[in-house]
Structure prediction request, 503 residues.
Amino acid sequence: MKSAAQKVAAATPAPSGALDIEGHSIDFIPEHERTDKLSAQGPFWFVGNFTFFTMTIGFVGPSVGLNALWTTIAGTLGIMFGTLFMAFHGSQGPHLGLPQMIQSRAQFGYRGVLLVLLATLFVFAGFNIVNLVLMMQGLKTLFDWGPFEVALAVTVPATILAVLGHDWMHKTFKWSLFLSLPLYGLVTAAVLLGWIHDTPAVAGAAPAAPLGFNWTGFIAQFAAAASYNIAYAPYVSDYSRYLPKNTHSGKLIAAVFLGASLSGAWMIAVGGWLAEHLHATDVLVALNTVGARFAPQLGTVVVAVTILAFLPVIAMNIYSAKLTAITGVDSFKKVNPTAKARIWAILFVVLLQLGTAMGIYTSGSGLSVLNIYLIVMLYFLVPWTAVNLTDYFFVRKGRYAIPHFFLPHDNMYGHWGARGLISYFIGFVAMIPFFCIFNGPDEVYVGPLAKALGSVDLAWLVGLIVSGVAYYILCRSLDLDSEERVIRHIEKTQPHFTTGDKR
Prediction:
């Protein structure tokens, strides 16, 4: 008789045709279906950040007093810091052949993982919600498009792409690179060579305060950039799990790091310049301005290509949100991981995103939501990433019983992973006095210790250290020898579940 995990692994055959829908969802990827190449990971994650949305991260610095140069420096350091965590998560994909949130059952339990699932679903859906609102605002200003028209034009093709699945995601990311590289190369050349002059102040308006350097603004920009790529941490295994199991971890980490950090730093620098010199608050309007200063109709072309190149990123958010939603349901009611389950989950995620985006757009608070969302997103994800990486690299060191991730009962990780849940809560509570949430210059919430530090945001650093250390200490009592005996038995009796060499 087959085990539950074997049934999961064999649930759907590998795709056989160019237009076949991906058959897998949250299940284990067998070795014979892992046809991705390591060389594709760097460009894939480069494109993930090579978007107009990343430019809005560069708007944060000028909104809190930084000039474009200091915005670039703070943003680059922040994006590199955040990408470290993202890249280390990526090494788990080929080693285990699982989506990220399934692997998190080892730390939080079969049902306890629902806590982090809610946090990550907030991230995946939230990115698309903010993206849609920004596009609704920009296209309304430029072309008088209604929000429903924008939602259909963007969501329908992205949804189809998410339904087609993993292989088509990689293909369209290549197409997106071919579209966006010359586009953003032109915008960058315009910035560096001074082809675009500053926008003059509006007659009668009070002169804007000169931008320069301040520590509060520097750390706010650093945190915004770091949170942007830390937020990618739950994604990466979803797109690296089709790599062969013995993919070299160090090379994969380097590929993800270089791809995601280089494009992120590039786009943040351009965004900082647009915010300082064009006084941009709407990135699509700013890009239209840059294009129109070359030729009257080029602005429209720039915006159109920007939106088209961004569709795969919208699809990526839908795809990963779908995996998270299925994992959440599966934690309480067993889900057969078929294409049908994927499609229903995708429709749920899309309807959730559309309804929320329309509500936010109607309220007229899109950019303020973006500023607050980036920081809150970081606060929710930091304890999870600290616990997950501590477990993978320092506690269990990549040794997991893969079939037990799919057993509702009698799995060695339990229903509720007390060590992971306690560590998450300890880290989150420790962060609260350091919370520093602003909407531009306006304070939303600043904790007492953050005020004592001059409103400098160190909550994310506190959360990383406290959650990671707490989990490591709590795991000192973990019976790893007993787990290892179970894993060796699985490797002997079910060799297709053997993990790769974690080099």
